[in-house]
Amino acid sequence: MINKLFALVLASCLFAGCHSGPVTGKAGETAAIAGSPAAASDDTTPRVTGIGGIFFGSADPAETREWYGKNLGLAIDDYGSPFEFRNANDPGAVNYLRWSRCETGSGFFEPSGKEFMINYRVEDLQAVLAALRAEGCEVDERTENSELGKFGWVMDSEGNRIELWQPPEGK
After folding, report:
1. What letters, b where the CB count within 10 A reaches 16 and e where it falls short, cover 105-122?
2. Do 141 and 125 form a contact (C-beta atoms < 8 A)?
3. Of 100, 115, 161, 166, which residue is least crowded by CB atoms under 10 Å?
4. Is-contact 22 30, C-beta < 8 A?
């Protein structure tokens, strides 16, 4: 439930070492990752379209929240701090990146032994997860669907848990 409240957006592309070929994207189109052997195709749609959130462990989340609010001026709510920005390709669209701290030892980052996770925005969660599985990446079999979108998880080559988020239609 906590991870659903954190998901939101910013531009980036990841998965170095996990992406070596094409991905099936929207309506069966093949999407290539820049720098991959398939990148020579006409479709260069990235798997990841932005960063939705940054989460880290904290021994005392309330104290950490207070410190960041007082010393850095973050507007903090129960789930962290939202950063609003405009989409360069659609200036009318408001996007958010969610910064949040989670209680150390809460299990939120498992199976990673690290207390840190980045949430990446994707356009087609199932296509990205299928491509990552096919490429041998460690993909969590569990996914979640809610009014906040679709969520899935993968471990990177260093054992960091990564959350993938497909926003709901029209968001």
Report:
1. eeebbeebeebebbbbbb
2. no
3. 115
4. yes
Euclidean distance between CA atoms 3 and 143, whole angstroms = 12
Token code pair at residue 87: 């989409």
What DSSP character marks residue 137?
-
Helices then strands, each counted (H, E), the chain: 3, 10
Locate 133 and state its tokens: 């599985």
Q: What is the pLDDT of residues 52-66, one digit of tens each?
A: 888 888 888 888 888
The alpha helices in 15-95, defined as continuous H runs, are 61-72
Which pair of tokens denotes residue 111? 């199976």
Q: Which fold has domain 2-166?
A: 2,3-Dihydroxybiphenyl 1,2-Dioxygenase; domain 1 (3.10.180)
Question: Which region among 40-54, 80-94, 125-139, 143-157 has the lowest average model confidence (pLDDT)?
Answer: 40-54
Domain ranges within the chain, ordered by starting residue? 2-166
Distance of CA 162 to the CA centre of its chain: 6
Query: Is this prediction's pTM over 0.70?
Result: no
Bond into 37 cis (ω within 30): no
> Is residue 153 exposed (0-12), middle (13-18) or buried (19+ Cβ within 10 Å)?
buried
